[in-house]
Amino acid sequence: MTNLFIAYVAAFTLPLLFHSWRVAVLGLAIQGILLSQILTARLTEHHAWSPQLVFEFASLFLIRAVFVPWSLFRWMKTHEMTNDFSLISKSLIQWMIAFLLLVAAFMFGNKMAPSDPHEALQVGSAAGSILIGLLVLANQTNPLGQIVGLLMLEGGITLVELLSPHAIPFPVSIGVSLVVVVLVLTCGQFLTRLLAITPGSDDAEKQVLL
User: Fold this and answer.
1) Which is higher by pLDDT, 26 or 195?
2) Is 196 exposed, middle or buried (0-12, 13-18, 19+ CB in 10 A)?
3) Could you give the CA distance from residue 80 to residue 35 in angstroms, rounded to a whole number?
4) Quick check: helix, strand or coil at residue 68?
5) In angstroms, rounded to a whole number, what is the distance separating the alpha carbons of residues 5 and 156?
6) Please, what is the end-to-end C-alpha distance for the chain in angstroms?
7) Cα 57 from Cα 47, distance rounded (Å)
8) C-alpha distance from residue 32 to each of 11, 18, 119, 139, 196 (Å)
9) Contact (CB, 8 A) for 161 and 44
10) Is the Cα dihedral 137, 133, 187, 19 positive or negative?
């Protein structure tokens, strides 16, 4: 479990170092894989495999590790992103803020579960994902970057939900999965419409002429 949480932290922090939207989307895919693995490791400690657990694992893996990155790559394939894409600003202040947010997240995790290192690490990882997601949203004007920050934040919320050793009711699990799918599709509409009116694009020129 410890290795999974460390890998999850790496999955949402390392993309900050790269100036590539593909790395950012790949980070979301890795986060989805790790969330499904954390669910498996967490719940199988308390439950035998059941249809509900299989559904929860499949929904986490298929939606977050497959559907989300596939959708973003498909929506971006007709739009050339500049090499200046970055999740946070290229400044020492922003790096310091990101580092301090991670430190604060793990201090919070230790405060919430002082007697359970694994739970403290999970709380810290979830809080870190939420805070870094908010930092990305605060720095982004690019629609793809905003979507990455939003999904990073949502992944942290999901990790908080996985703290419970009890499986959530099956209808609720189905509803949550549908909400995530609708969220991704809504983000896709948001992305394609904004990219269509980006200055310099053919669609933008047509709209100006009209």
Assistant:
1) 26
2) middle
3) 30
4) helix
5) 11
6) 57
7) 13
8) 10, 19, 19, 23, 28
9) no
10) positive
CB 63 within 8 A of CB 177: yes
As a whole number of angstroms, the distance between CA 169 and CA 167 comes to: 7
pLDDT in tens, 65-111: 999 999 888 888 766 665 678 888 878 888 999 999 999 999 999 99
Q: Which residues contact 22 (CB under 8 A, 6 or more apart)?
A: 73
Q: Spell out the residues 6+ positions from residue 7 whose beta carbon is closer than 8 angstroms to its own.
A: 30, 34
User: What is the identity of the amino acid at 21?
Assistant: W
H-type helices in 77-169, by residue range? 92-112, 117-139, 143-161
**Cα–Cα distance measured from residue 9 to residue 75, given in angstroms and rounded to the nearest whole number:** 27
What pLDDT digit, counting tens, does each position of 137-191 carry? 998 888 888 899 999 999 999 888 887 666 677 788 888 889 889 988 888 888 8
Q: Where are the domains of the chain?
A: 2-209
The two structure tokens encoding residue 61:
């893996």
Q: Which of the 8 DSSP states describes residue 16?
A: G
Residue type, 92: L
